[in-house]
Amino acid sequence: MKKLLILGAGGHGRVVADVARAVGHWNIIKFIDAKFPELDQSGEWDVVGNDEDLIELVDENTDLAVAIGNNKTRQMLIEKLLDHGYSLPYIVHPTAVISKGAIISQGTVIMPLAVVNYGAKIGLGCIVNTHVCVEHDCIIEDGVHLSPGCRLAGEVKVGSCSWIGIGASIIHQIEVASSVVVGAGAVVIQNVKENTTVAGVPARIKKSS
């Protein structure tokens, strides 16, 4: 019996569980959450422990998924789990279209109807959300969240732990640095520096540190 334990039993966690169920690879899907035992159910799935219970809950037939929305927290936890030898496969919904020439790294979840085209590289622990399009030769570094409906043209690079908002578009060959926030519906037509928030059409700097 193949088991998947999902760390984080919130709304995003339930979506990850639903995607994993659609994949059909895991016979058992359960949650681990810091709110256990007060929280013992999330949607239709059981919450069976917290982080301290991880060692006793995991065996050789158990995979892990991290369903935490905060990019940096998710990335730190994934790296820690991989360092300790846990199995964190990528999870891809059956309706997503992934080129055989694309590379998807561990811990990444790809939601329904997403498209990842030839030559694209998706890093560790990314969220490629519903109806996202990642065009050819894009590089998406570790811990990135591509929100529903965003569009990345060819050869775009998105740095680690950046968040591309719902419905945003990035034109070809643009570089978005690490820890950037791109606002909902923004159109990015020039490179974006690290630790910057941009929004609007065209996207302009709203916050920089």
Descriptive keywords:
single chain, 209 residues, alpha/beta, Rossmann fold, UDP N-Acetylglucosamine Acyltransferase, domain 1, eight-stranded mixed beta sheet, six-stranded parallel beta sheet, 3 helices, 14% helix, globular
Number of domains: 2
Rg from C-alpha positions?
A: 17 Å
According to CATH, what is the topology of the largest domain? UDP N-Acetylglucosamine Acyltransferase, domain 1
The helix content is 10-25%
CATH-defined superfamily of the largest domain = Hexapeptide repeat proteins
Q: Strands across the major sheet, in which order?
A: 6-9-12-15-18-21-23-24
Strand content: 25-35%
Could you describe the largest sheet, including whether it forms a barrel? 8 strands, mixed
**Kindly, what is the distance between the CA atoms of the first and last residues, rounded to a whole number of angstroms?**
49 Å
